[in-house]
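Schema walk-through. Below, the input block comes first and the output block second. Nothing else is stored per chain. Lengths vary across the set, and this one has 115 residues.
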Amino acid sequence: MRARRRSSKLRIVAGTAATERDRPWRLKLYIAGLRPESHRALASVQALRAELGARLELTVVDVYQHPNLAREHDIIALPTLVVESPLPVRTYIGNLSNVSRVLLALGIRNSINGP
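--- output ---
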């Protein structure tokens, strides 16, 4: 009787691997209190939420209340938006009001709409 030969090919079972569109986006926004720049940055992140929907996990860090977190993560200017996931970590510093530009700079627009 002949032995069966095992295939060395990797099989992907439908529904087990998360696609790029399904991955959660973990963002961290560093702001400075209730300054106008902070309000604009928060409004811009709300526009990102509209783009990413439920996949957006946002943490807002007020460096006035948590200066140690800013030091730990080498935050040198505000506002700063950090994309922690998916990797690689990306950082956008400064004016976040042009949401399309932020999406492109962080690589979010390309991963949603394809290469």
